[in-house]
From TrEMBL:
Protein name in the entry: HAT C-terminal dimerisation domain-containing protein
Signal peptide location: none
Tagged with keyword Phosphoprotein: no
InterPro entries: RNaseH-like_sf (IPR012337), ZnF_BED_domain_contain (IPR052035)
Protein source organism: Gymnopus androsaceus JB14
Molecular-function GO term, any one: zinc ion binding
PANTHER family: ZINC FINGER BED DOMAIN-CONTAINING PROTEIN 39 (PTHR46481:SF10), ZINC FINGER BED DOMAIN-CONTAINING PROTEIN 4 (PTHR46481)
A cellular component annotation (GO) from this entry: nucleus
Length: 245
């Protein structure tokens, strides 16, 4: 698909017109296959998604001998691989690429959701090549998961309500409620629902208490008396209303 996309774009007098004509013939909007760029998140997924939507067009132009694109023709098994693409990674990367939404507290839940998907893989009907790729991906995920133990920030971020986490973790309205440091919707209950070892849960609680222990006996400063004008109105309020006293 990547090679086909490149060939179409760079054949402005032969393949490109043929692609556009095929799109029209099959009643589809004329659009090119997105380019797969190594430095752009999800570009491979986006390219394959459009290719699947335009399967009839891809099959037509790759099956046309006069276009010399037969080497890009996909077999039924290869289309099965396209269908096996993991949408969960699309959701995860889109989530963490948004500066106004992504927080530390989301990292572990999202990794858990992805890990659940990996765990269920053996019971799913996937192409062998995809299963092999998932095995490597899970190894990478486990490597980064283990590194969260090196930072108290991750444990504290997860250690603060009793909302259970399901796949709804991917829903933006829920994610915008997450706090950067203390997550009000998880607390230790999250780990219990995930079946974590009680020893680890106790450790997380101890770390949290130790981190905030210095603040337990701190006295909060008393609020200052509001400054009022000659008419007994808060000066700040007067200024905001452009009232001159």
């Amino acid at each position: 698909i990547r090679g086909l996309s490149f060939a179409i774009i760079h054949s402005t007098t032969i393949a490109l017109p043929a692609w556009r004509e095929a799109c029209t013939t099959h009643g589809l909007n004329v659009r090119l296959l997105p380019r797969d760029v190594a430095t752009r998140w999800n570009s491979t997924y986006d390219m394959m998604k459009v290719a699947r939507e335009y399967t009839a067009v891809v099959d037509e132009i790759t099956g046309n001998k006069s276009l010399n694109l037969r080497k890009f023709e996909l077999s039924d098994k290869q289309w099965d691989i396209v269908d096996d693409l993991l949408h969960i990674f699309k959701s995860a990367t889109l989530l963490f690429s948004r500066d106004n939404i992504s927080t530390i507290a989301q990292v572990i839940p999202m990794m858990d959701v992805i890990d659940d998907f990996f765990t269920e893989t053996p019971t799913r009907m996937l192409h062998p090549a995809v299963k092999s790729a998932l095995t490597l991906a899970q190894a990478t995920l486990n490597k980064y998961y283990s590194r969260t133990d090196d930072s108290n920030v991750y444990r504290i971020a997860m250690s603060t309500s009793s909302l259970s986490l399901t796949i709804s973790v991917l829903t933006p309205p829920v994610l915008t409620m997450f706090n950067v440091v203390l997550h009000p919707n998880f607390k230790l209950e999250y780990f219990r629902k995930r079946g974590w070892d009680q020893v680890w849960i106790n450790t997380a609680e101890e770390i949290l208490r130790e981190e905030f222990k210095p603040y337990v006996d701190m006295d909060a400063p008393a609020p200052e008396d509001p400054k009022v004008c000659a008419h007994g109105v808060d000066i700040g309020y007067c200024y905001n209303l452009f009232i001159l006293c």
